[in-house]
TrEMBL record, chains A, B:
It is an enzyme of class 5 (isomerase). This is 2-hydroxychromene-2-carboxylate isomerase. The lineage of its organism: Bacteria, Pseudomonadati, Pseudomonadota, Alphaproteobacteria, Hyphomicrobiales. Residues 8-195 form the DSBA-like thioredoxin domain. The active site is at S16 (nucleophile). Keywords: Isomerase. Its EC number is 5.99.1.4. It comes from the Bacteria. It catalyses: 2-hydroxychromene-2-carboxylate = (3E)-4-(2-hydroxyphenyl)-2-oxobut-3-enoate. Belongs to the GST superfamily. NadH family.
Length: 205, 205
């Protein structure tokens, strides 16, 4: 009998501030609980557009937005993470998401995702810039040129588009979100611990 | 020199599902941390209306709404609280909020608030019903008839209206919210522990 370990899917959007907090802590936490990770980049833009939003709800609702930035400062401090607000916000994470989708089953995905989030919210840099993304790939030892070419193909674009549809089908409406093997959905960096608990408790149900 | 203890303001809305979770656990938790509580009923209706919403965002955005009910089930189970969905949702909590505002500096406020939330989300009852509210007042030993008369006066109505304005001035956009003595705002049942930590750490700053 094969012994398997529980797995959760981590759905993240590069423009999402709270996805940054999760991306920086999820690997160590999942490993300490014996839970495997599926990295699932997606885009909130089409999901927000479907409910009539053309930008981040943090921009549409100013009180919520200014609260979010203050809360993010507090959470980053608790996690000892650097924090810088990128301009513009939200950032266009389309290219980064395509790269993460292309890399997601390999060893470069996690370091790539972390490095992009660090550049964006740790240093306030513009992650829509292909040169920044190529430099990140080189830094982590990935074949930058091949990757940057591959992600312009229709098949990678299609895969990311399909991921957005899959997210919607799972009931996802924000990021970060976590989905366990039995389909249980958890939303928000604050729910990461509960998602991991659930994954362990219901594994093999 | 007078020794004072830290205090937080607990801003709650009777229609708010997560305010229920907080109301049932805040007193014991605050007491264990040596933090005093100010109970601050308010209404989200006018705040939501100011941003163009005419009902709960959980009704406007169905994916978010169905997630919320599932998440609430999980959180209620973790806290060993009963859960029943009131119909209609959101409930009209105007009368209950006026009563809580009228009682808020006295000994009956906390038991009244808890009993109303229990009726609404523990039993699924309609808290806009004056008979239910009067019965709750009788149950907790308050002078029900006097209270029900007093809350129809203009001065109590005005006090609740002013509380809504005060909440907006503090940057509050949802419930539950917590505000410490130095004006730090925390939103959501998930932030109660951090709000209490902050209140203790920054007391007398």
């Amino acid at each position: 009998m094969a012994v398997t370990k529980p797995v959760i899917s981590f759905w993240f959007e590069f423009a999402s501030t709270y996805s940054y907090l999760t991306a920086m802590r999820i690997e160590a936490l999942a490993e300490s609980r014996g839970v495997g990770l599926k990295w699932r980049p997606f885009l909130l833009g089409p999901i927000f557009a479907a409910q009539g939003w053309t930008t981040s709800p943090f921009n549409i609702y100013p009180a919520k937005g200014s609260y979010m930035w203050r809360d993010l400062e507090r959470q980053a401090e608790l996690l000892s993470l650097p924090l810088a607000q990128p301009d513009p916000f939200p950032q266009n994470g389309l290219k980064a998401a395509r790269i993460a989708e292309y890399l997601r089953q390999g060893e470069w995905c996690a370091p790539f995702v972390r490095a992009v989030f660090h550049a964006e919210f740790g240093e306030g840099r513009d992650i829509s810039d292909p040169e920044l993304l190529a430099a990140v790939l080189i830094d982590i030892g990935a074949p930058a040129k091949d990757v940057m070419t591959a992600v312009e193909t229709q098949s990678v674009k299609d895969r990311l588009r399909e991921a957005v549809g899959e997210a919607q089908g799972l009931g996802i409406f924000g990021a970060p979100s976590f989905v366990t093997e039995d389909g249980e959905l958890f939303w928000g960096n604050d729910r990461l611990e509960q998602a991991l608990d659930w994954a362990v408790r219901h594994h093999g149900d």
